[in-house]
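Mods, move this if it's the wrong board.
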Amino acid sequence: MQEITQLSQLDLNKSYTYADYLLWKFSERVELIKGKVFEMSPAPSRKHQEVSHKINRYFDRYFEKNNCSLYYAPFDVRLYKKNRNDELVETVVQPDLCVVCDLFKLDDKGCIGSPDLIVEILSPNSTKHDLNTKFNLYEENEVKEYWIVHPFDETITIYTLQNGKYIGLKPKVVGEVIESVIFPKLNFEVGLVFE
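Not the wrong board. C-alpha cells:
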C-alpha cells in the first residue's frame, strides 16, 4: 500500500477503517466516523485550551481517588459494533476529555469501546459536528454521559443516557454548580472554568 503522507492523498468519498488510519503519516488531525474522514480544526483557540485545562483540573482531582482513568485529546477512542478487530473498526474520535472506568477497554493505542463520560468543548468550526454528528454517535455507542461546553456562551450542558437515548439537563451557567449524574461528587462552579 502507498504511504499516505498528506491528507490530500485520501479519497474522502471512500470508507476507511482504523487499520487504514494507523498507516496515515500526515500532520493534520482527523477523526474517522463510520468509515468517513473528518478533518479536525487546526490547533484549538487559546480560550478552548484554557477551558479544557481548567475542567481537566477538576476532573483530575476527582478521578485520582477513583478507579477510572482520565484522558484528553489527542487520544484515540475506537468505537465498534460487536467486534473489537481493528480491521473492522470504522470510527475513531478524539474527544477533548474522556473518562474510562472499565480499564479493560484501554490498550497502548487508546480506548476501544465507549468511555463512561465524554466532554467536547465547542469551537466555531466544530459546533455542528459536536452537537449533531458526535451527539448521535455517542448516544448510539452508549456513552453514559456527554458534556457539551460552550466557551463563548459560558454554559455547560450534560446529557445522560436513559433507555438508549440522551436526556438533556438544564444548561448550567456562570454562578451555578455543575454536577455529573453518573459521578455525583464530581462538581464545580461553572464560572471557575471560564475565568
